[in-house]
Amino acid sequence: MRRGKARSTVRVAVAVFTMLVASTALAADTAGQKIADGIMLYYSVVPAELVRGYAKGKPEAAMHGGAPSGTHAHHVQVALFDKDTLERITDADVTATVREIGLGITEKPLEPFTVANALTYGNYFDMPTKTIYHIDIKVRRPGSQEIVDVKFDFRHH
Predict the structure, then answer these.
(1) How would DSSP label each residue in 113-155?
(2) Is 78's pLDDT higher than 60?
(3) Could you tell me which residues come within 8 angstroms of residue 70 by beta carbon, excluding any fewer than 6 positions away?
């Protein structure tokens, strides 16, 4: 029964990510799933304009201090699950490094926030060039020195 509840939680997280990404009408590489060292990671990258569209007073409008102004900001977000138990991971230290090929690197913590009553991690990154960005997510669980490293590419159109 516990595994069924965990599967439902995963389905809700996937539905939330799909909803956010589907409304962007961007390429398929704006969201996905990766598995590394026992962690299942669902990721999504959406323009900050979508987050600014939430009504004031809604938690999404205020997350990470509010969506930055301008047209180049994007919200990088991840949901983490234990691969074996499908339990949501809610107590990890998560950072993201966003790198444009040949240019600078930006590293920020991915802060916990709640979407549809489910804890997720995210932050805003400036992505001004319409190109491919390499995104590296590092996850450290409490009590562990091991850092799980998950990489994916985001094509900004």
Answers:
(1) EEETTEEEEEEEEE--SSSEEEEEEEEE-TT----EEEEEEEE
(2) yes
(3) 48, 126
Query: In a 3-state reduction of DSSP, which class is residue 4?
Result: helix
Nearest residue to 34 (alpha-carbon basis) of 135, 150, 137, 124: 150
Residues 5 and 117: their CA atoms lie apart, in Å, by 15
Residue 70 has a pLDDT of 72
Beta strands 148-155 and 132-140 are antiparallel
Continuous segment of H or E residues that includes residue 94:
strand 93-100
pLDDT band at 76, cuts 50/70/90? very high
CA–CA gap between residue 38 and residue 97 (Å, rounded): 21
Closest CA to 102 of 132, 126, 73, 136: 132
Task: State the residue for tokens 């990890």.
Answer: 92
Secondary structure tally for the chain: helices H, strands E: 3, 9
First and final C-alpha spacing in the chain: 43
DSSP annotation of 88 reads B
